[in-house]
Amino acid sequence: MKHKSLIFTIGSVMLALLACGGTDHPDLVSQQPKRSTNNNQNTPSIGMPIDITRLEFPKLHGKGSSVYVYRAPDPTNAAHQIMNYALEWDHTKRAQRWSCWMSTAPTRVKNWSRAQWKADKKWHGDPFQWAPEIPNGEQPPVKNEFSQSLFPDGSKGYDRGHICASEDRIYSKEANEQTFYMANMQPQVHSFNAGIWKQMEDCLRSHLQSSDTLYICKGGTIDQANQILSYTRSKFIVPKYFFMAVLLKNASGYHAFGFFIEHRNLTMKQMKEQGISTRLADYVVNIAELQRLTGIDFFCNLPDNLENEVENKPLQAVKSEFRDWGINQ
């Protein structure tokens, strides 16, 4: 298939596209608040895509990292390309720092199923593959690298854990295939990936109204030694913690929260047996706390006054705003 993406590296110009004063999504500008002072926003220079000013983007890390923007046909107009998702790749650490994307009603329509890959003549199963623009040697091998590596407790095997989840990009076959790039993967032990992490992912999908827009940034911790759990057999990072930063735009304004959780080899049942909470509410943090924990400046493209408001709300106020999501108990 034809892969459409944009890429830029901080400090050097690579392949890029500048949208002349616009964005790749016709609804994006109308969904953003009116601009006011913003001292920490991403500012595209020559060679950088305008996409980095979108609300789902955190502050770019720089320092040998690149941002890759993947595009797919607009589900409302196939002749038009929209940003499917983007990720930041650290070339030195050989790891992705985060993936981010925007969820709107058109991109939540189900036009493809992961199960359909089994009948696809090319893949006959999940289409895991290297991201075409990132050197293959920087990415984990497609097969066996995660599954044949040991968890610290000696048990074998990690899943190829999607950061931008396959189920979040089912509005087209092309959009879904792009989520299977190895650059969008982190090693996740199966009990975690199919357990409480999945519960968190499902939470983000289950409570949206058709008019809601959700801006999402997810990843695993790769930047601090005490937040790295282990390494795979070829020395790819296994994060000790995983996170989600969520910004909701609805009829009442902007609201945000984060999830931050330790990467454990425990099923939901085993967590309960060991007295470890399985209540999502116990892993909710406000964005200011998530930024302290991860070192990432989320939602930096919001005007400063609005950014400060949504990021610094007391935790109980944050949970109350999302009480319909079941995270305030």
UniProtKB/TrEMBL annotation:
Mg(2+) binds at N193. InterPro entries: DNA/RNA_non-sp_Endonuclease_sf (IPR044929), Endo_G_ENPP1-like_dom (IPR001604), ENPP1-3/EXOG-like_nuc-like (IPR020821), His-Me_finger_sf (IPR044925), Non-specific_endonuclease (IPR040255). Residues 28-47 are annotated as: Disordered. The keyword Ion transport does not apply. Keywords: Metal-binding, Signal. Residues 1-19 form the signal peptide. SMART domains: Endonuclease_NS, NUC. Residues 82-305 form the ENPP1-3/EXOG-like endonuclease/phosphodiesterase domain. This is Endonuclease.
